């Protein structure tokens, strides 16, 4: 009778321990799923690199120019600085599908909502061309 009591005690304790561990894992898994589901990224930072030849504009400099940083919020592009008129072009499969011009005082560019997928975004600021990838 004593062996049976010890065996049942060990089984009960091990099952309680397993339930505690599994319960913690399940709670952690549910919390992780809730955290992942609640993530909502509003703005994406896009880096547009200068694609003109540097020696045409600054023949003495060997350092690369800083990229143009813009924010993307859905189909809207937000310029962090706008000193000049900006021309915007969307290119897909080497075909220009959209061209727009932005006036100096406006920091927002609204792209048509009918465009989905990956495009090449070209921005012309003055005579300098910046280029980068965008996903709509």
Q: Approximately how much helix is present in the residues?
A: 25-40%
N-end to C-end Cα span: 72 Å
Which strand order does the major sheet show?
5-4-7-8-1-2-3-6
Nearest-integer average pLDDT:
73
The CATH architecture term of the largest domain is Sandwich
Number of helices: 2
Question: Low-confidence parts, pLDDT < 50 over ≥5 residues?
Answer: none
How many distinct beta strands? Answer: 8
Q: What is the beta-strand fraction?
A: 35-45%
- Overall geometry: elongated
CATH class of the largest domain: Mainly Beta
* Integer count of domains: 2
**CATH topology name of the largest domain:** Immunoglobulin-like
The largest β sheet comes out as:
8 strands, antiparallel
Estimated radius of gyration: 28 Å
Class inferred from helices and paired strands:
alpha+beta
Order of helices and strands: HEHEEEEEEE
What does the model show?
- It is a single chain.
- This protein is α+β, with helices and mostly antiparallel strands and 136 residues long.
- The chain folds into two domains: 1-40; 44-135, Immunoglobulin-like.
- 30% of the residues lie in helices and 38% in strands.
- The protein contains two helices and eight strands; from the N terminus they run H-E-H-E-E-E-E-E-E-E.
- It has helices spanning 2-38, 54-57, and strands spanning 44-50, 68-73, 76-79, 86-92, 95-102, 108-110, 118-125, 128-135.
- An eight-stranded antiparallel beta sheet has the order 5-4-7-8-1-2-3-6, with no helix packed on it.
- It is elongated and about 90 Å long.
- The mean pLDDT is 73.
């Amino acid at each position: 009778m004593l062996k049976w009591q010890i065996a049942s005690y060990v089984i009960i304790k091990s099952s309680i321990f397993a339930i505690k561990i599994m319960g913690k894992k399940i709670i952690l898994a549910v919390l992780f799923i809730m955290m992942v589901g609640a993530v909502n990224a509003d703005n994406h930072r896009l880096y547009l690199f200068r694609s003109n030849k540097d020696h045409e504009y600054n023949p003495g400099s060997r350092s690369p120019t800083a990229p143009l940083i813009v924010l993307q919020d859905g189909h809207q592009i937000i310029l962090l600085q706008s000193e000049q008129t900006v021309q915007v072009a969307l290119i897909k499969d080497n075909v220009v599908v959209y061209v727009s011009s932005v006036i100096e005082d406006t920091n927002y560019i609204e792209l048509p909502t009918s465009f989905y997928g990956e495009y090449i975004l070209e921005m012309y600021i003055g005579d300098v061309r910046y280029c980068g990838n965008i996903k709509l």
